[in-house]
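User: Can you recover a sequence for this backbone? Please restate the input before giving your answer.

Assistant: Of course. Working from this structure:
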């Protein structure tokens, strides 16, 4: 990537969480719309990024996560329900992460 004729690089991580969209915007539907707009922008820029997916969002909106996969971006997990692990046992954390991983894999095959 170039900016003003000079090489330019950056790291960008995108959180994909329909629950947070609802919390802040009052409408979970901004998640598929916003994700599509970002995917189009990144395609135009010829860049790839990491999308951090909450398991419940992959379960609720598998087609959105599929679009991310199909565009060649990295998908990583971001817990099952976007909970903070402080105060949770290692067993609870491990269980949550395993469920998130299964859910994302079942939703989009990655």
């Amino acid at each position: 990537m170039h900016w003003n004729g000079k090489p330019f690089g950056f790291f960008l991580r995108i959180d994909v969480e329909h629950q947070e969209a609802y919390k802040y915007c009052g409408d979970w539907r901004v998640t598929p719309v916003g994700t599509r707009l970002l995917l189009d922008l990144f395609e135009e820029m010829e860049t790839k990024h990491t999308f951090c997916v909450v398991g419940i969002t992959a379960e609720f909106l598998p087609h959105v996560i599929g679009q991310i996969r199909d565009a060649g971006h990295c998908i990583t997990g971001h817990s099952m329900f976007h909970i903070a692990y402080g105060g949770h046992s290692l067993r609870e954390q491990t269980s949550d992460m395993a469920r998130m991983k299964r859910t994302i894999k079942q939703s989009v095959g990655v």
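That completes the design. The two ends are 27 Å apart (CA to CA).
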